[in-house]
From TrEMBL:
This is Vancomycin resistance protein, vanW family. The keyword Kinase does not apply. Pfam families: PG_binding_4, VanW. InterPro entries: Glycopeptide_resist_protein, Vancomycin_resist_VanW, YoaR-like_PG-bd. The chain crosses the membrane at residues 20-37. It comes from Clostridioides difficile (Peptoclostridium difficile). The keyword Membrane applies. Residues 88-203 form the YoaR-like putative peptidoglycan binding domain. Keywords: Membrane, Transmembrane, Transmembrane helix. It comes from the Bacteria. The lineage of its organism: Bacteria, Bacillati, Bacillota, Clostridia, Peptostreptococcales.
Length: 419
């Protein structure tokens, strides 16, 4: 019995020893495998397999090798912009543009090396299963880029300008219209930012909004002839009145009326008061002559009115004085006041008309220019319909003098001027 127990004990010890030997061998084997695995794959001084940077395969590369591979493909280049055939360039130096290639290569290298062993091992396995594609970031000076883009915008921007007309010693002069150009700052900045962010080496067509003029050169050049004019005289002895006639003539001069557009005398002259530059002069108020700021403006309005009648303008508002004027025939005057009495007329033609007034030397004239083909053959007829009552007609004739239309313009009634 004792010998048997001794034998069993000896066998147990041998079994344990064998187990220990096996375990030691396994540990040594695993250690060798781990050492081999670590030195071959995990801690081999190279970037793990299946790692890409912006689509460039940097697997099994050292950091310096990966940096060369990335730099060869991703180096900051000029940003090329264009508009209307002209090229604009923003160089990397202009905006301190650079790529964080060193940082991204470092991150790629350390992706399976900077954590704990098991974290690194897990990351290694994840990358082998799912490709890692790291992105390069662009860095630049925002203020310098904004300044450069604004400079390009300034070189492109053009203020829209309508065509215009003036009268010189040689006749009518025309100033050309200009199509406006407005650099779309927000849209272009976003496109440029995306070019930088995506590292695109293309030519960007800049977005510029065009502003077409309301009045074109072609339109104003159709104005080529006088189609109606009228003059009246005044005494230069009344200084305030002479001044007011001249001021109101200037304020209602150099007016370009487009087809269908309405002329408003009061809108152009503004209030007839001292604050608006007018002086005291005799003026008819409720049939009585008084001193008031703006005396004389009605002579200008009456002069413009008669030019408009003869030019064939569509009269939309006119009112006669309460007492007859001395500078125009009865039935052909046009009074105005800040209280609502106004002279208005529309351009009925398909072409623009241009109003030019002159005042000085005791005379005020209004000349209306238009297209020679629109020039009407007009005469004005005033009929007395009662005591101090008159009806005004405009008669249109063809080139042979035949009446083709007779148009009633207004009815006027006057009272004697109060003493």
């Amino acid at each position: 019995m004792g010998r048997r127990a001794t034998r069993v004990s000896r066998l147990g010890k041998e079994k344990k020893r064998n187990i220990v030997i096996v375990l030691v061998v396994l540990i040594i084997a695993m250690g060798g495998f781990t050492y081999f695995f670590n030195s071959k794959f995990l801690y081999n001084g190279k970037i793990a397999k299946n790692v890409y940077i912006e689509g460039v395969n940097v697997s099994d590369m050292t950091k310096s090798e990966a940096l060369r591979a990335i730099t060869d493909k991703y180096t900051p280049e000029d940003l090329n912009l264009t508009y209307d055939g002209k090229k604009y360039t923003i160089s990397p130096k202009d905006i301190d543009l650079k790529y964080d290639t060193e940082d991204v290569v470092k991150d790629a290298y350390e992706s399976t090396k900077k954590g704990s062993y098991f974290q690194n091992l897990k990351k290694y396995i994840d990358i082998r299963v799912n490709k890692a594609n790291m992105k390069i970031k662009a860095e630049y000076d925002e203020a310098k880029l904004s300044s450069k883009v604004s400079s390009i915008a300034d070189s492109i921007n053009v203020k829209m300008k309508n065509a215009s007309i003036s009268v010189g010693s040689g006749g009518l002069n025309y100033t050309d219209s200009v199509i406006g150009r407005e650099f779309d700052l927000a849209a272009n900045k976003e496109s440029i930012y995306n070019m930088i962010k995506n590292k695109e080496h293309k030519t960007l067509e800049l977005k510029v909004n065009l502003q077409k003029p309301d009045i074109t050169t072609e339109q104003v050049k159709t104005v080529n002839s006088v189609i109606g004019q009228y003059s009246t005289t005044y005494s230069q002895a009344v200084e305030g009145r002479s001044y007011n006639v001249g001021l109101s003539a200037r304020k209602t001069s150099d007016v370009l009326l487009m087809p269908g557009e309405e002329f408003s005398y009061n809108k152009l002259t503004g209030p007839s008061n001292k604050a608006n530059g007018y002086k005291d002069a005799p003026v008819i108020v409720y049939g009585k002559l008084e001193q008031s700021a703006g005396g004389g403006v009605c002579q200008t309005s009456s002069t413009v009115y008669n030019a408009a009648l003869l030019a064939g303008m569509e009269i939309t508002q006119v009112t006669n004085h309460s007492s007859a004027s001395t500078y125009v025939p009865k039935g052909r005057d046009a009074t105005v006041s800040d209280g609502g009495l106004n002279l208005k007329f529309k351009n009925p033609y398909k072409h623009p008309v241009y109003i030019k007034n002159y005042a000085g030397g005791g005379s005020v004239s209004s000349v209306i220019y238009g297209n020679s083909g629109d020039k009407p053959n007009i005469s004005i007829e005033v009929k007395q319909t009662g005591q101090n009552k008159y009806s005004t007609y405009r008669i249109f004739k063809d080139s042979s003098g035949k009446v083709i239309k007779k148009e009633h313009i207004s009815n006027s009634s006057y009272k004697e001027l109060k003493k």
